[in-house]
Amino acid sequence: MPALTRFVLRHKALVVLFWVLVAAAGVMTIGGTTHRMTNNFAMPGQAFKVDNQIASQYGNGGSQPPYLPVITVPAGQKVTDPATAAATGRAFAALARAVPGVRIADYATTHDRAFITRDGRSTFALVYTTPVTGFGGTDLGPAIDRAVTAAAPAGWRVGVTGSALLANGSAAKSKGTGIMAEAMIGSLGALAILALVFASFLALLPLVIGAISVLATFLLVGGLTEVTGVSQIVEFLIALIGLAIYGKSRKPGISPRFWPAAAAGVSYWLLAAFNFIPGREAASSRYVYAGAAFVLLMAGRVGADPKMDFNALISDKSPIGVEVAGAGHNALGAWLWLDAVGRLPAGNAVLAQEISGKVLPVEVIREEGRPVAVSMDQSPPEFGESVTDRAELAAALGLSVGDLVAGEPTQVVSTGAGHLLVPVRDRATVDRAAPDAPRLAAALRQVGGEGCYLYSRDPVDADAVAYTRFFNPTVGIAEDPATGTAAGPLVALLVAAGRVAEDTTVIVEQGYALGRPSRIQVTVSGPRVRVSGSGLVVAEGRLTISRT
User: Fold this and answer.
1) Pairing verdict, β 411-414 and 382-386
2) Is the same domain home to 113 and 242?
3) In a shared domain, residues 213 and 286
């Protein structure tokens, strides 16, 4: 080490030039690196194996969602008519010439009426394309639209949808900043705050060191992505590395009040909540295992005090720093973490948690051969305001007013957090929603709602009571794959309306549109609302930061 120090001091200009070149190379390659990272979060298991077998045998499919071209024939025609069915088959078959490597399933090839709408005028095809192993990739939606439109008879309407298109939005609207632009904006904000707090632009030095370290790490990971698969999770771990290096390189003498008491060794755990449903085998359904609402817990975020009337104090912040109330997937993740690190009693236990000043019961359930499950009480349901301007709400969700269920209220209900519950006609309508975040946030504020829970009584599995998506632009959450604080109010509303029997445990489906299906178990008994589920720790680590 002394020899290295002497070399660096004697060749400062050369060392600075080297790191400038490394940073420049990192900037130029970071886009390609992130696009080559894999986005497959599937957990090992039977469903994962079957997905791989399908993709291996047919060259596509498996866990990759298909494109859905849709044809609507003119009034007076029916897709089931032999001539019309043949014409739709030819239109869809034209995709094989326009998009190489596709596999198509439609009414003409299967004669399955599930491919036809109830009015008989619209039909769709499942179009599986060559798998994309990294992020981004070519958007084949426009090419599929052009090919089907060209092959369809005059007067027929053609459109293309699919979970990937709904999640990403149209290309014309994709004008967001890139990862480097966002990092630079964040760095400038941090620099301004540090310069104000420390009254010195020496605060720039740790930021520069941290930024170069992140770019250098991305450069190394970029090489790895050329020879092996690297998960997207690594992208977030690199940011944590930059935070640790920033802490190690900060100017000595800075007031320690700006650093947590545990700065000498901060541990973190990454958990997937609502992965398992108590009482069901993990292998019985791919959705029981595939649901993933990730919760990052830092040491000190969950504590216990035997002098208090609760066993754990739960505090949770949204991506923009807003305190999130209610017992949902974040609280579930906290209890799973407590169990993973051995801080819960052996066997079944009835405990309590304090969230936003409210103490609520928690039950830890252990059954042989199954992962630990947690059942959490929520606050008694409170029924708030209803939306009066249904047309504006529908437009904010990217839908028409006819998509909303007539005669049913769009009402805010709270069991700890007030969310607007919006009933729509069917599962396809739920998947088709494309919210305008500022417009939806304005609609929510008018009725005192925090998030919007879009639901249909048209679930995927027969044992579920609703199929849902959750949008929360008021706290900076575009879409959540599992929201216990919204599933509880929804079932409370269904029980109050007589659509679900009281004292019955039901399932709410969520996250399917994101490719991360979750099943949330809810029980309503009078004013008592309970949300149950399980999960697992998917990653853990430790950040070491100097305390000088």
Assistant:
1) antiparallel
2) no
3) no
